[in-house]
Amino acid sequence: MSNLTFLAVSGSLRRTSHNTGLLRAVRNLAPAGVTIDLYEGLGSLPFFDQDLESGPEPATVADLRRRVREADGIIIATPEYNSAIPGVLVNALDWLSRPTDQPVLGVKPAAVLGASPSQFGTARGQLVLRQILHRMHVPVVAHPEVTVFQSHRRFDTNGCFLGDEVTEGLLSTLLAELVILAGRAHPAGVV
User: Fold this and answer.
1) Number of domains, the chain
2) What DSSP character marks residue 138?
3) Which among 1, 58, 24 is positioned nearest to 10, based on CA atoms?
4) Residues 157-168: pLDDT tens digits?
5) Which of 7, 29, 11 is CA-nearest to residue 164?
6) Cα separation of the two ends of the chain
7) Within a domain: residue 43?
8) Residue 110: helix, strand or coil by DSSP?
């Protein structure tokens, strides 16, 4: 199989975000031949406005769409706000789902994970995200479900993952499953 590149998107804008730290941990665990490209422009996307579709595409939207198009898959780490996902993440997904006859995300494979200081991790938020991705026809890795709970104990004050064998194993397995799903999207093994 050729080299694979996955675009990693954190649904958190916080500088010391545990979810961004989780994506950095995934990047550090990536096997040879897999590149994780961390997207950091979520906060600069304009609010989705259908009127903007008929004019020149905003540069930040064009950049996100290009990076998704060029990637072999996407990894989304979401915090959980009010038992759902953050508005900035919904906004990015709205941009990626439009125009409806040619969505950028399309059938690009995805992996979902998240970290939260709560006892339940991001289980409810991930359910919402999975429903949105299902509606967008995005194939999502089913297992493992990586919901890092009590994240305030698993990350330092700079948002760096402190590491533990169980979580690292889950992250590696999630990434391996995304590689398999990406291979199914490109059955000839050419990406």
Assistant:
1) 1
2) -
3) 24
4) 999 999 899 999
5) 29
6) 8
7) yes
8) strand
Which CATH number belongs to the domain containing residue 91 in this structure? 3.40.50.360
> pLDDT by residue (tens digit) across 123-155?
999 999 999 999 999 999 999 999 989 899 888
Q: What contacts 121, CB < 8 A, 6 or more positions away?
A: 80, 114, 115, 147, 148, 149, 151
CA atoms within 13 A on the CB side of 121: 18
What pLDDT band is residue 65 in, cutting at 50, 70 and 90?
very high
Residue with tokens 């990626």: 96
* Residues 70-113 pLDDT 10s: 999 999 999 999 999 999 999 999 999 987 777 888 889 999 99
For residue 90, how many other CB atoms are within 10 A of its CB? 16
Cβ partners under 8 Å of residue 126, min gap 6: 78, 80, 112, 113, 114, 145, 147
Residue 65 main-chain phi, psi, to 5 deg: -60, -40
Among the residues of the chain, which ranges form H helices?
Answer: 18-29, 50-53, 59-70, 87-96, 123-135, 165-185
Answer yes or no: is 191 within a domain. no
Residue 45 within a domain: yes
Domain that includes residue 113, residue range: 4-185
**Residue 28, in any domain of the structure:** yes
- pTM greater than 0.70: yes
Question: Cα separation of 141 and 138, whole Å?
Answer: 10
